[in-house]
Amino acid sequence: MAAGREAIAFRPAVIYNKWDKNAKKRFIFNKNKEGAARVRYLEFSVLPEEAGKRVDAILRSHGLSTSAIRRSKHREHGLLVDGEDIYTSYLVHAGQVVAILADDNAPSDIIPNEGPVDILYEDGDLLVVDKPAGLAVHPCAGSWEDSLGARLVHYYRQIGLAADFHPVHRLDKGTSGLMVVAKHPAAQHILTKQLHTGGFHREYLAVCEGHPSPTAGIIDAPIGRSDDSYIRQEVRPDGKSARTHYEILEQSGRFSLLRLVLETGRTHQIRVHMAHLGHPLAGDFLYGTEDPGLISRPALHSAHLELAQPFTGKQLTFGSPLPEDMARLMELPT
Predict the structure, then answer these.
(1) Contacts of 230 (CB under 8 A, 6+ apart)
(2) Which band of pLDDT confidence, cut at 50, 70 and 90, is reported for residue 14?
(3) First and final C-alpha spacing in the chain
(4) Rounded (5°) CA angle 318-210-325
(5) What's the pTM?
(6) Are the C-beta atoms of residues 108 and 93 closer than 8 Å to each other?
(7) Pick from 314, 305, 313, 301: nearest CA to 120
(8) Which SS3 state, helix, strand or coil, does residue 13 take?
(9) 125 pLDDT above the threshold of 50
(10) Is 172 among the catalytic positions?
(11) For residue 63, is it left (φ>0), alpha (ψ between -120 and 50) or beta?
(12) CA-based nearest residue to 182, from 299, 309, 267, 49
């Protein structure tokens, strides 16, 4: 175990305007006919040094995947230059505007379900939501009807948006806090590539049993699935590389409040690594001790998030406070 890096101060949440007149890249929402769903185009102005390049090369230079370009070129008005339909082989001129249809081409397979969604930020490409504990991200056994995906698909239909559910990362059902959801595949592709880089920074708060020593460090231990379980993960030599930075922020009689930063994104990584240290998260039924009288879920919260908007590059920063059920643990006597 090595010494952890310096603590990163939590910053207040920032909500940015949905339209940046000075941005090189901008978004447009249109209605193709009365009552039809809004469609989403991404527009890119051709710079002098880009003149003579193919349209598909221009789009790839802005981070769009080959598959996203292929999907759009087969759709009606899927690729445009100055508002005119073109082929991907078209050679552009300086000052022209290349536009690609970026919304979903088919309805979502997820059955929509009405329910509250705490949206901290929304623009044409993404949302940042504050997920409550107990809500599954995807429809799954025990949560087929209600999930974050089902609630967002309902929300999209209510506002007339042609969008499927495109999570950039996921949180366990019992984990609360900040999560990024893309509104279309192109944004999801760029944000997913950003996920484990310095441009996409996540911090978690957790309450663990006991008091880890040293008070800060790096857990560098590979994680893989247990041989006797489809769900449970464990530290094992043949597992995938996994690194977790941790720092104790506060100690009480039984518990410690931790700040954690992930270098990798393995399944249950924080829960597995803290159990490996001998300090499982409070309430963790899978890697520690379940105790509904104390807390009804693993005490883990996605508390801080920084990312770059995928098409404007603007830095976005958000924070979510420690939930009450976790704060109560730190107030308990020995």
Answers:
(1) none
(2) very low
(3) 28
(4) 45
(5) 0.83
(6) no
(7) 305
(8) coil
(9) yes
(10) yes
(11) left
(12) 309
The residue annotated as part of the active site, out of 20, 146, 172, 220, is 172
Q: Please write the tens of the pLDDT for every residue from 33-74.
A: 444 456 788 999 999 999 999 999 999 999 898 988 988 888
How many Å apart are CA 246 and CA 199, to the nearest integer?
A: 20
> Which residues partner with 91 through β-bridges?
54
The torsion angles phi and psi of 332, rounded to 5 degrees, stand at: -75, 145
Nearest-angstrom CA–CA distance, 48 and 149: 42
Question: Strand, coil or helix: what is 150?
Answer: helix
Nearest-angstrom CA–CA distance, 302 and 321: 9
Strands 166-167 and 119-122: unpaired
What's the whole-number mean pLDDT along residues 182-206? 92
Kindly report the length of the chain.
334
Tell me which residue has tokens 């911090």.
203
SS3 content of the chain, % helix, strand, coil (to 5): 15, 30, 55
Query: Mutual orientation of helices 185-194 and 66-73 as an angle, nearest 10°?
Result: 180
CA pair distance 262, 252, nearest whole angstrom: 24
